[in-house]
Amino acid sequence: MDDSLAALLRELEEFGRTGDAATDDRSRKLLNITHDTGVFLALLVKATRARHVLEIGTSNGYSTLWLADAVGEAGAVTTVERAPHKVTMAERNFARAGFRPRIRQIAGEAGPFLASRADGEYDFIFLDSDRGQYAAWWPALRRTLADGCLLVVDNAVSHAHQLEEFRRLVAATEGFLTSLSPVGKGELLILKDARP
User: Fold this and answer.
1) Pairwise CA distance, residues 102 & 179, whole Å
2) With left for phi above 0 and alpha for psi between -120 and 50, is residue 99 left, alpha or beta?
3) What Cα–Cα distance (Å) separates residue 144 from each residue in 39, 66, 151?
4) Are 83 and 116 within 8 A, CB to CB?
């Protein structure tokens, strides 16, 4: 990671902290991942050599920048966000980082977008969105995730109660292995077994 990106990420961390503390309106909060979660995601993307990354929940693009840096120039990140003001903020941050060529922004609802995607289209998926929707999205998530690849879910410890139904569905689905990491607010790793 170069110095200018590291500086931008530090700026966005502070902007997110102060902005979130200044409002009680959840829709205005950025609710960014923690710094250590960003490092963890980058490590996973690089270790798995992921090149086609999907992120559900862009916010202001903080986590997207970690993912886009990790995939490198040969990769691409598609990120989905439904809040127009967050889409605009993220677009500016992507331009500042010089990452526009490797980031595809989707403004809209994740459900219809997921339904439109091809089988095995993504080799890494990161979920940091409306946790109440994850169970409904599970069939599309598992279909669009390539064999042998990872789906990572944020807030798996901090909001474990909101993920109970989703975790039950995953556990009941053959061919998936899960592990809970205490990094940040808790990261649930879901591996789709490679077919023999």
Assistant:
1) 29
2) alpha
3) 25, 22, 10
4) no
pLDDT per residue as tens digits for the range 135-150: 999 999 999 999 999 9
Give per-residue pLDDT as tens, 70-121: 999 999 999 999 999 899 999 999 999 999 899 999 999 999 999 999 999 9
Beta bridge partners of 105: 79
How far is the CA of 137 from the CAs of 78, 97, 115, in angstroms?
A: 17, 31, 9
Helix axis angle for 62-71 and 3-21, nearest 10°, is 160
When computed from its CA atoms, the radius of gyration of the chain, rounded to whole angstroms, is 16
DSSP string, 137-196: HHHHHHHHEEEEEEEEES-TTTTGGGGHHHHHHHHTSTTEEEEEE-STT-EEEEEEPPP-
Identify whether the C-beta of residue 170 lies closer than 8 Å to the C-beta of residue 178: yes
| Alpha carbons 41 and 132: distance in angstroms, whole number | 23
Q: With beta carbons less than 8 A apart as the criterion, state whether 29 and 23 touch.
A: yes
Q: What DSSP string describes 47-85? A: HHT--EEEEE--TTSHHHHHHHHHH-TT-EEEEEE--HH
CA distance 181 to 12: 24
* pLDDT tens-digit map of 31-75: 788 899 999 999 999 999 999 999 999 999 999 999 999 999 999
